[in-house]
């Protein structure tokens, strides 16, 4: 079975298109968490963010910003998941723009932060920097 989002890009599955360019497609989410919940996808297929060439991602943030302005959202989440255990359901890179108009609508998340050990964080920082 072909990728659902690739089929949407090809016009095989209809969508409520908000914006389209050579590299990017934006459309309303059919299972919205709030009014104006939209998806922005690169037309280049890749399951995870690291699979997409940089030049194919160049319009994603500007398109998300246009959606924020067009919906009038003042509080909102931009969400992008990579992999099944990270809650990705369609394995084609996609970004959610989810307006958060009040406490009950939009994305509800818990942030299970921990107090970091500064020495471990410094070592991790150096390790990551050395690989960039």
Automatic annotation (TrEMBL):
<protein>
    <recommendedName>
        <fullName>HIT domain-containing protein</fullName>
    </recommendedName>
</protein>
<dbReference type="InterPro" id="IPR001310">
    <property type="entry name" value="Histidine_triad_HIT"/>
</dbReference>
<feature type="short sequence motif" description="Histidine triad motif">
    <location>
        <begin position="92"/>
        <end position="96"/>
    </location>
</feature>
<dbReference type="InterPro" id="IPR011146">
    <property type="entry name" value="HIT-like"/>
</dbReference>
<dbReference type="Pfam" id="PF01230">
    <property type="entry name" value="HIT"/>
</dbReference>
<dbReference type="InterPro" id="IPR019808">
    <property type="entry name" value="Histidine_triad_CS"/>
</dbReference>
<feature type="domain" description="HIT">
    <location>
        <begin position="4"/>
        <end position="107"/>
    </location>
</feature>
<dbReference type="InterPro" id="IPR036265">
    <property type="entry name" value="HIT-like_sf"/>
</dbReference>
């Amino acid at each position: 079975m072909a990728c659902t989002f690739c089929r949407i890009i090809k016009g095989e599955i209809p969508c409520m298109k908000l914006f389209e360019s050579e590299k990017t497609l934006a459309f309303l989410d059919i299972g919205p968490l709030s009014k104006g919940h939209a998806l922005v996808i690169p037309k280049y297929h890749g399951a995870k963010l690291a699979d997409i060439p940089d030049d194919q991602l160049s319009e994603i943030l500007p398109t998300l910003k246009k959606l924020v302005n067009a919906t009038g959202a003042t509080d909102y989440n931009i969400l992008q998941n990579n992999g099944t255990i990270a809650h990705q359901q369609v394995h084609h890179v996609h970004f959610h723009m989810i307006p958060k108009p009040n406490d009950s609508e939009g994305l509800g998340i818990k942030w299970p932060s921990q107090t970091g050990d500064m020495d471990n964080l410094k070592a991790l920082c150096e390790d990551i920097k050395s690989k960039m």
